[in-house]
């Protein structure tokens, strides 16, 4: 299982962001499925708020398997 973590570009805690953007606080079967499901939502949020966001996909042991900056 995989999950998505977000944080603001300036390093602020992303727990509030994860709950703000509907659909992020769930488990996914693969990193690809997580990215496909959440990237459009995160991009829209980043554009609307004019904030860069760090998006990370982590495995069940909280080890990052993918990460990117969403401008």
Which key terms come to mind for this protein?
alpha+beta, 3 strands, 3-stranded antiparallel beta sheet
Separation, N- and C-terminal Cα atoms:
27 Å
The portion of residues forming beta strands comes to 25-35%
Helix content: 25-40%
Physical arrangement of strands within the biggest beta sheet:
1-2-3
| Secondary-structure element string | EHHEE
Oligomerization: single chain
Overall SS class: alpha+beta
Strand count: 3
Spatial extent as radius of gyration: 11 Å
| Integer average pLDDT | 83
Shape: globular
What kind of sheet is the major sheet? 3 strands, antiparallel
Contiguous helical run count: 2
Contiguous uncertain segments of 5+ residues: none
Report a brief summary of the structure:
This protein has two helices and three strands. The chain is of the alpha+beta class.
Structure, explained:
- The protein has helices at 15-20, 31-49; strands at 3-8, 53-58, 64-70.
- The protein has 71 residues and is α+β, with helices and mostly antiparallel strands.
- The chain has a 3-stranded antiparallel β-sheet.
- A hairpin with a 5-residue loop joins strand 2 (53-58) and strand 3.
- The mean pLDDT is 83.
Secondary-structure blueprint:
Blueprint: E1 3-8, H1 15-20, H2 31-49, E2 53-58, E3 64-70
Antiparallel strand pairs: 1-2, 2-3
